[in-house]
Amino acid sequence: MNFKRVYTSTKTYFVLSFMALVLLVFTSTMAYKQIVGMQKSAEMVSHSLHVYNAISLLTAHYTEADSEEFRDALLNTNKKERIYNNYQEEGRVIMDSLANLVRDNPSQTKRLESLQVLLNDLYKQLQDLDKTDLEADNTLLQYREAQKSIISISLYQIRSLKNEMLGEEQRLMELRQKTYESDKSLAPLLLLLLAFLALLVFVLSFLRIYRNKLRIRQSENFLKNVLGTTDNVVNYYEPIFNEENDVVDFTIIFANACNRDYFGLEPDDMIGKTVLEVFPFLKDSGNFNHLVACYRNQDKVKFKSQVLMNDSTMWFESLITPLSEGILITARNITVEEEAKNTQLQFRKRLEKQNLILLDNRALLANIFKSISHIVIHLKSIRNAEGRIHDFEIVFVNDRISPVTGDIPEEIKNKNVSVVFPEVFKTGVFEHLVTTIENNNTIEYTVPYEKENRTHWFSTTAIKLGDGVTVTIRDVTEEKEKSNQLIKLNEQLVIRNSILNDAESIAKIGSFLWYRDSDTSELSDNFYRILGFEPNAFTSSSKKFRDFIHPDDLATYDLKLNESLNGLTSEEFTYRIVTKQGETKFVKTNGQFLEKDGQTVMIGVVQDVTQSIYAAEELRKSNLELQQSNAELESFNRVASHDLQEPLRKIQLFISRIEDIERTNFSEKGTTYFNKVKNAAQRMQNLIKNLLAYSRIDSSKTDLETIDLNDVLSKVQEDLINMIKDTQAEIISDQLPEIQGIFFQMEQLFANLIANALKYRNKTKSPKITIQAVTVGASEVPGNINLISKSYYKITFKDNGIGFDTKYSEKIFEVFQRLHQKTEYTGTGIGLAICKKIVENHYGYIHATAKLGEGAQFIIFLPA
């Protein structure tokens, strides 16, 4: 057992102090009771003495009735009536006194009652001594003698009762005297013990207080060392009240050395002054209210504030804690963190803008592929063990190939060229493609193609892209003689593709580092290029850079520069420059001041926004074109929902009628063809419905509401009840969260994922679908999405189906992408694309993982 820990424990001293207090109270109580008992015993002895005195008076009273002088006075004096009354009144007073003294003693009270009767008889007998109606003297004398005998008998009886009362009081006197002697001897011992215990408690308390005082001194020294070495401002304030008891200011009681480091204030000079006197900016910024709220509510307050001291802007994170009769302020300097955040925010905004430009370019490229009449194919190299290209994989092909070869792009993607187009190995096209990749050259060639007993000529351009080649094919059968025009068109196409590639890789941003004191600058290579120079072509400075400022913008530039120098701050602004070649460009700049190697420097970025400004007018025109495009999309929806489905419904109607009437007349081959026609019509109907569902998913998010995903799951299970029973599937789900979303879209998402798991089940075992939900931080969300929440719900749909190869984990979410032949599993290839669009519509992310034969997992992240 660790006795030292017990000995030094505050709890141990608390228990010992409590026990000492209890013992002291107990001893004091006993001493008090002893003193009270002794006092009571003394009072009882005194009471017995009073009773003795009263009985003595009674003895004297009734003894007087036995004296001849008293009797003669009653018989022979003319004042006998007054003497008798006085004697009787004296007896009454004595009896009343005795009755009051023995009222707490029932036996004495009873004797006293008997004695009162005897005294009354005695008074009557004394009164009867004088019989005036007896005339003869002898008779009178005989009567008086007889009356005296009666009086003597009464006196004897009174004396007997008096002796009994004296005996009783004697017994009580002896008993009370013994009690008094006992109490008198025990009281000093108790008082001595009480004094000893008090002294012991005092000594122990003194030792404990002294030891605590030593520890407090050590703690104070330790605290002073901590406060002297910490990087945080630590101050202690006590409130100042007005007549209405409102806090109007605080007195500075303590301030550490960091006040000197950050604010240039000496701690000793601050002590005793008021907070608003030393830090007047607290009132204007509203942060003074935080101090008052902390003191009034006796609760911690945490806030960030910006402070301007000595022409320097600093950020502090302050924690106010109620302490004793005031408040303790701990302020941490977070200026570097805030500046880094601001710089990061600026870079992020620029990066987002560039990403939007890249997305627009990609969308433009996709629209070009759809609108042009050329066939565009991208092929990926397949190399053998020696690193030589022996085949190509078809990665991309646009829809324009279908009218030429009859192939559907989705069906030939990811297949080898040797399987789909084996003739390229005979016509020399394969060698052209290999040469393009190996030599990094753009090759143009013309190839013939036999179709419907007619030779078609196609002009082909092959451009290397990565370890593959992009092939652009154009039908030039009717333009064979116009070769010059064909070359020109091909060159324009190459230039356009080059511009698109450069737009993705070049952000048109330069950076600089300017030393204010020495007026020297360090420019990035791209900054030099923006100015029209090769990197490091000249020594840069602010004066040198002014030579590039457009004369009309020079005054604005100087004003912004002076504001930055005076306040050591910088804000984003746009101005024009004139390059070495005389070209006028619009540039946007921003920067931050910081201390580096004892010097004040500005670090910043410059972006060439000439194209953005010139594109402002073009944006307005593009908006008009976008409105027209949206109208065309709405028209497409009407066509798809009515005009395309109307002939399809008629086809299905007549298929049904032919099946009912002519089914038995079909040959075996005819039945096969008829079934293919029927299945194709059904697949076309499903395809149109899914396309409509995909196109109608609204991304405006104006009708978001609180949705319980448990209700969504119940509704989907109810809709799929027959499919679940037929497959004997088991669905196990965690408690799902509530989200902000669109109910029918969430229902469609859950239905597609569960139906997929049931469709692609393992035929050898019953389907089992597990739905798990946990909350994760935003940093755990994969993918490049715009994070709008600090936390996300991670919902996982896990099944034990046939799974798929992980390399197809992204392909399966594309429209019309299927991993199996339509003869193996039904479907249109749009279901998972719909799932992806719904999740993205809810600011989320979805991806899939799987292994062949071991099931799949579809993982969804939705904002919490």
Short note summarizing the structure:
Residues 571-621 form the PAC domain. With 864 residues, this protein is α+β, with helices and mostly antiparallel strands.
Write the layout of secondary structure elements.
Elements: H1 3-8, H2 10-64, H3 68-76, H4 80-101, H5 106-127, H6 137-229, E1 233-241, E2 247-255, H7 258-263, H8 267-270, H9 275-278, H10 281-285, H11 288-297, E3 301-309, E4 312-323, E5 326-333, H12 335-371, E6 375-383, E7 389-397, H13 402-405, H14 409-412, H15 417-420, H16 429-439, E8 443-451, E9 454-465, E10 468-475, H17 483-505, E11 509-515, E12 520-523, H18 525-530, H19 542-546, H20 554-567, E13 573-578, E14 584-596, E15 599-608, H21 610-643, H22 645-662, H23 668-695, E16 705-708, H24 709-719, H25 721-727, E17 730-733, E18 738-741, H26 743-759, E19 768-777, E20 791-799, H27 831-841, E21 845-850, E22 856-863
Parallel strand pairs: 17-19
Antiparallel strand pairs: 1-2, 1-5, 3-4, 4-5, 6-7, 6-10, 8-9, 9-10, 11-12, 11-15, 13-14, 14-15, 16-18, 19-20, 20-22, 21-22
Helix pairs in contact: 2-4, 2-6, 3-4, 4-5, 5-6, 22-23, 24-26, 26-27
